[in-house]
Design brief:
about 375 residues, mainly alpha, elongated
């Protein structure tokens, strides 16, 4: 075919030297036996042996005589107190005012180091501002609560922001074992999509649609793209149409529909959808590059080149445009121009795109 938020026990352990607030208590200085059980639990979770991890952790947290379980009860009582700064900080986070949100959420945690909501959103906010620090804070908490679903989820976000997508998938999977949540399925699906594991992405987006029926538009959109990459075009089209019917506003849904139409040899429809992307996103290279793709498969190489040039005028770093410029010039027998655009594109291309451009350069040299 053609190319195509939450489990009850969240604990604020900031006992590193760079802690931003003092804490009233912590799970430090536990008896050796209890530390060993926690270590075993962490190891089971890291290895994906979640049932063993649950059983080991339960033997510790359900023991009324253990130091650990007594401290856990203290936390549960204190964690329900939410300072006013927490609500304000969460609101700022949701509106993208991350620096202001961080200040208020830190102030909330100074007033109550065990405030669940402030802790959760402070880490999520850190995933935007400083994902490496967010990862450290998640690890400090998971040292004492290795089955904490929300922190496992947030560590997954931090890992993904740091480009560690396989580690992110492991964190999301652990979180989902202990608590089924549509948002976590979505994030794991999105990460699998980034890893080009499209079949896994489809499964997770389907879970999102099932669990979050009132708020699943992004899952429809991304599942449509995953289906398209799997060359399941009927399913992809169905999701595109469902996304549009339910009020989805992402113009790139028409790009997906254009790709589907090309693979059905319906070029008139493909051009119609590509032009819709151009009209909806006039300052973006996406529409022009989509139309260049359509023209290429229509054997209209000069038109494909014209749209490719227009795309890089709008964004010189838009690597996909260079691929279709190179391909079209090769079809016209102009290997000099093909190599020129291929080498320009390599500066901005992803690893897989660089590999494709290398192949095209070789083809040009073999002419």
């Amino acid at each position: 075919m053609k190319k195509i938020s939450f489990f009850l026990f969240i604990i604020s352990f900031y006992f590193a030297s760079n802690s931003l607030y003092s804490q009233q208590w912590a799970f430090s200085e536990l008896p050796e036996k209890e530390e060993k059980l926690l270590a075993e639990t962490r190891q089971f979770v890291e290895q994906g042996e979640y049932e063993k991890g649950q059983k080991t952790f339960d033997s510790l947290s359900s023991d009324a005589n253990s130091v650990y379980s007594k401290k856990l009860k203290v936390f549960e009582k204190q964690s329900k107190k939410n300072p006013s700064e927490a609500k304000k900080g969460i609101k700022l986070y949701r509106t993208g005012k991350h620096e202001e949100a961080q200040q208020l959420l830190s102030e909330a945690l100074e007033r109550n180091p065990n405030c669940i909501s402030a802790l959760e959103y402070r880490i999520l906010n850190l995933c935007v501002l400083n994902p490496a620090e967010a990862l450290k804070e998640c690890d400090r908490i998971l040292h004492y609560l290795p089955l904490e679903t929300e922190i496992l989820y947030e560590r997954g976000i931090a890992h993904r922001e740091l480009g560690k997508r396989s580690e992110a998938v492991k964190d999301f999977s652990a979180s989902l074992f202990f608590k089924q949540d549509g948002i976590v399925y979505y994030q794991r699906g999105f990460t699998s999509y980034e890893l080009k594991n499209y079949a896994d992405a489809v499964k997770d987006f389907s879970k999102t649609v099932l669990l979050n029926q009132k708020d699943c538009l992004p899952a429809y959109f991304l599942r449509a793209n995953a289906y398209c990459n799997l060359e399941e075009f009927d399913k992809s089209e169905t999701d595109c149409m469902q996304y549009i019917k339910n009020g989805g506003k992402q113009p790139l849904v028409y790009k997906t529909l254009s790709i589907i139409s090309v693979n059905r040899d319906d070029y008139a429809k493909a051009l119609e959808y590509a032009e819709k992307v151009i009209n909806l996103m006039p300052n973006s290279p996406e529409g022009y590059c989509t139309r260049a793709f359509v023209y290429y498969y229509m054997n209209e190489y000069q038109k494909s080149i014209a749209d490719g040039i227009e795309a890089i005028k709008l964004n010189p770093k838009f690597s996909t445009a260079y691929i279709y410029l190179c391909r079209s010039y090769l079809k016209l027998g102009n290997k000099k121009k093909a190599v020129e655009f291929a080498k320009q594109g390599q500066e901005y291309a992803s690893l897989s795109e660089k590999e494709e451009l290398d192949v095209l350069i070789q083809q040009a040299q073999d002419l």
